[in-house]
């Protein structure tokens, strides 16, 4: 029976950290110092171990931690079962599928540009396969679209979800546009649950300026890097 695979976040970063850490430890076996021009470096086994540890924690998040974090976010959305839900930066469908399972009379839409650097095998076809495996393809829709240029009508969605997506937008103004698009497509009374490892203070500020009621919580125990979740509710 096919098994759902939600991939490894930032696979290139994990690979490079692991390779650099392993290289430092291997070199340490043969020499106690490294000379770079006039600089002599000693005890480089410690940064090597730190790099390997960081890679391991990132991998652990991808395989275990993000499942727990997904459940936390879905719980915050408090779905009743008949909503329309948007997942911004759906990747291979982690949040989209979890939401769809709680929507027997609703519908879930996932948007992404499916960049390979963000997630291993980050392909729309892999996401569609995961939807089929989990039996929710009939209540889900996938759309190729950037977060800052959504084509949905105003006030369409009861809930907007996003995890580890918005920081990948490189410029502040474009991230602001993405946040304002989230505000625009939310129904009055709807809630956005946005998680990221950086820039969440900025997201919260933008949502507050737009008139939403905002709260922010930080999490460390089962995520790496530490993340926070911004919950923003649009006035009814």
Oligomer: single chain
Q: What CATH architecture of the largest domain would you give?
A: 3-Layer(aba) Sandwich
Q: What structural class do helix, strand and pairing data support?
A: alpha/beta
What percentage of amino acids are in beta strands?
A: 15-25%
H and E order: HEEHEHEHEEHEHEE
| Largest sheet geometry | 7 strands, mixed
User: Roughly what is the average pLDDT, rounded to an integer?
Assistant: 94
Distance between the first and last residues' Cα: 45 Å
The CATH class of the largest domain, by name, is Alpha Beta
Features:
236 residues; Rossmann fold; two-stranded antiparallel ribbon; 6 helices; 9 strands
Structure notes:
The protein has helices at residues 11-30, 45-77, 94-100, 124-133, 172-185, 200-209, and strands spanning 33-36, 39-42, 84-88, 107-112, 140-144, 157-163, 186-196, 213-219, 227-233. The protein is α/β, with parallel strands linked by helices and 236 residues long. It has two domains: 11-60; 64-233, Rossmann fold (3-Layer(aba) Sandwich), CATH 3.40.50. The strands form two sheets. It has a seven-stranded mixed β-sheet, sandwiched between helices. It has a two-stranded antiparallel ribbon with strand order 1-2. α1 runs antiparallel to α2 (45-77), α2 (45-77) runs parallel beside α3 and α5 packs across α6 (200-209). The mean pLDDT is 94.
What is the topological layout?
Layout (H helix, E strand, L loop, with lengths): L10 H20 L2 E4 L2 E4 L2 H33 L6 E5 L5 H7 L6 E6 L11 H10 L6 E5 L12 E7 L8 H14 E11 L3 H10 L3 E7 L7 E7 L3
Helix pairs in contact: 1-2, 2-3, 5-6
């Amino acid at each position: 029976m096919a098994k759902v695979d939600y991939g490894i976040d930032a696979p290139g970063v994990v690979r490079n950290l692991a390779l650099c850490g392993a290289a430092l430890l291997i070199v340490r076996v043969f020499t106690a110092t490294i000379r770079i021009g006039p600089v002599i470096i000693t005890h480089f086994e410690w940064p090597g171990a730190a790099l390997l540890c960081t890679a391991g924690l990132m991998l652990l998040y991808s395989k275990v931690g993000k499942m727990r974090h997904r459940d936390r976010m879905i719980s915050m959305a408090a779905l009743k079962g008949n909503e329309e839900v948007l997942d911004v930066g759906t990747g291979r469908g982690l949040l989209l599928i979890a939401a769809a399972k709680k929507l027997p009379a609703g519908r879930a839409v996932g948007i992404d540009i499916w960049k390979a650097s963000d997630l291993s095998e980050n392909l729309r076809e892999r996401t569609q396969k995961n939807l089929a495996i989990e039996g929710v393809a009939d209540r889900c829709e996938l759309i190729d679209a950037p977060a800052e240029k959504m084509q949905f009508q105003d006030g369409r969605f009861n809930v907007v979800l996003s995890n580890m997506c918005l920081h990948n937008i490189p410029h502040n103004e474009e991230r602001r546009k993405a946040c304002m698009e989230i505000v625009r497509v939310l129904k009055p009374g709807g809630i956005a649950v946005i998680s990221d490892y950086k820039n969440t203070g900025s997201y919260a500020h933008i949502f507050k300026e737009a008139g939403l009621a905002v709260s922010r919580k930080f999490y460390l125990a089962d995520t790496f890097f530490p993340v926070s979740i911004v919950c923003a509710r649009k006035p009814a």
